[in-house]
């Protein structure tokens, strides 16, 4: 039995932090897991910037409300789920993901949790588990699933490499160059075809 594990940002929806960087006029917030492999270092950097500018959860959620899935993403996900089990594994947060899941037709998502104080300031975050994507893929495998994984960033590489089949989707050239052994594609049609091929 197969289950496909997909990254969220950069694969199905635009990068939330990049959208917020543009909306807030703070270019430093454009840094993502494509640029920084150390997730904790990246998040601490983001939280410091939010604190410095007096920005909190509400301001980010206001931006997220205006974000739509990438063209074709919902249709791809609907088709994939009609053919096999699928789950989104993301390092985003439940407070960010919910409105996006509504627009994608409520797929299953495993993500993290923000720690927010009474004033709406984001004071920290709580990971669902250590090495969230790799740990989840291994747990699914222990339940009898063959996993297929796809993502675009450094934090997706472990789940891709640990799966029966894994693919880079719209990944930056630097990652594709460093990992030439991982098949890469740029369209949902290509990704669906690769996933179908892996299940044969």
Q: What does it look like?
A:
There is one protein chain. This protein is an alpha/beta fold. The protein folds into 2 domains: 2-12 and 70-198, HAD superfamily/HAD-like (Rossmann fold, 3-Layer(aba) Sandwich), CATH 3.40.50; 16-64, thrh gene product, domain 2 (Alpha-Beta Complex), CATH 3.90.1470.10. It has 9 helices and 7 strands. It has helices at 16-24, 39-53, 57-64, 73-83, 94-103, 132-142, 157-162, 173-178, 188-198, and strands at 2-6, 85-93, 109-116, 122-126, 146-151, 165-169, 184-185. A 7-stranded mixed sheet has the order 4-3-2-1-5-6-7, sandwiched between helices. Helix 3 packs parallel to helix 5.
Topology record:
Layout lengths: L1 E5 L9 H9 L14 H15 L3 H8 L8 H11 L1 E9 H10 L5 E8 L5 E5 L5 H11 L3 E6 L5 H6 L2 E5 L3 H6 L5 E2 L2 H11 L2
Parallel strand pairs: 1-2, 1-5, 2-3, 5-6, 6-7
Antiparallel strand pairs: 3-4
Kindly list the characteristics that best describe this protein.
200 residues, alpha/beta, Rossmann fold, thrh gene product, domain 2, 2 domains, seven-stranded mixed β-sheet, 9 helices, 44% helix
Give the mean pLDDT: 96
Q: What count of helical segments does DSSP give?
A: 9
What percentage of amino acids are in beta strands? 15-25%
**The top level CATH class name of the largest domain:** Alpha Beta
Task: Give the structural class.
Answer: alpha/beta
Helix content: 40-55%
Low-confidence stretches: none
CATH architecture of the largest domain: 3-Layer(aba) Sandwich
CATH superfamily of the largest domain: HAD superfamily/HAD-like
Count of folded domains: 2
Sheet with most strands: strand arrangement: 4-3-2-1-5-6-7
Number of β-strand runs: 7
Reported by name, the CATH topology of the largest domain is Rossmann fold
Major sheet details: 7 strands, mixed
Q: SSE order in H/E notation?
A: EHHHHEHEEHEHEHEH
Please compute the radius of gyration using only Cα atoms: 17 Å
Our measurement of the CA-to-CA distance between the termini, rounded to an integer number of angstroms, reads 11 Å
Q: Give the overall silhouette.
A: globular
């Amino acid at each position: 039995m197969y289950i496909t594990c997909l990254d969220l940002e950069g694969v199905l929806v635009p990068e939330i932090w990049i959208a917020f960087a543009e909306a807030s006029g703070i270019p430093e917030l454009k840094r993502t897991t494509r640029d920084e492999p150390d997730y904790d270092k990246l998040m601490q950097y983001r939280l410091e910037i939010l604190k410095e500018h007096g920005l909190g959860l509400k301001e980010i959620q206001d931006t997220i409300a205006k974000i739509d899935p990438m063209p074709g993403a919902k249709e791809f996900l609907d088709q994939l789920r009609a053919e096999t089990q699928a789950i989104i594994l993301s390092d985003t947060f439940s407070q960010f993901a919910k409105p996006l899941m509504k627009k994608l037709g409520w797929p299953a998502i495993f993500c993290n949790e923000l720690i927010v104080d009474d004033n709406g300031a984001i004071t920290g975050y709580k990971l669902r588990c250590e090495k969230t994507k790799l740990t989840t893929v291994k747990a699914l495998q222990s339940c009898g699933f063959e996993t297929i994984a796809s993502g675009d960033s450094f934090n997706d590489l472990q789940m891709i490499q640990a799966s029966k089949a894994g693919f880079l989707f719209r990944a930056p050239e630097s990652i594709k160059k460093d990992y030439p052994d991982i098949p890469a594609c740029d369209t949902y049609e290509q990704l669906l075809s690769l996933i179908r091929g892996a299940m044969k």
